[in-house]
Amino acid sequence: MEQKEIQDKILRKLMSMNPPKWGNSHTEEDNLRKGLPKHLRGTKIVQNSIDNLYKMEFLTKLKKTGEWHVSLNPRKKEDIYRFLGLPPEE
């Protein structure tokens, strides 16, 4: 699996959660890895993929209940849809 595929899977997972994890709706950072194949979860490529999502500002990070929580950045919604090759949301 390449970095782009991993990032795609992580973003789509956050968008498909109920409720979708935009802005104030967040989930623990550890949950980002749960949708990936077990042999990839602790690898450097997964961590680099997540780090790059932070650098692109697609993910926001905050400390809640002693754990790092993440959500999709609503200000980058259009860019995220473009990155995933999805039509813009109305």
Task: Quickly count the domains.
Answer: 1
Our count of helices gives 3
CATH class equals Mainly Alpha
Spell the H/E element sequence.
HEHEEH
Query: Strand sequence of the main sheet, in spatial order?
Result: 1-3-2
Separation of the first and last Cα atoms: 31 Å
Number of strands: 3
User: Can you say what the CATH homologous superfamily is?
Assistant: Winged helix-like DNA-binding domain superfamily/Winged helix DNA-binding domain
What is the mean predicted local confidence, pLDDT?
92
Instruction: State the helicity in percent bands.
Output: 25-40%
> Low-confidence stretches at least 5 residues in length (pLDDT < 50)?
none
Name the structural class.
Answer: alpha+beta
Anisotropy-based shape: globular
Biggest sheet layout: 3 strands, antiparallel
Report the C-alpha radius of gyration, rounded: 12 Å
CATH topology: Arc Repressor Mutant, subunit A
Strand content: 15-25%
What does this structure look like?
Helix content is 38%, strand content 16%. It is α+β, with helices and mostly antiparallel strands and 90 residues long. It has a single domain, classed as Orthogonal Bundle (Arc Repressor Mutant, subunit A), CATH 1.10.10. The mean pLDDT is 92.
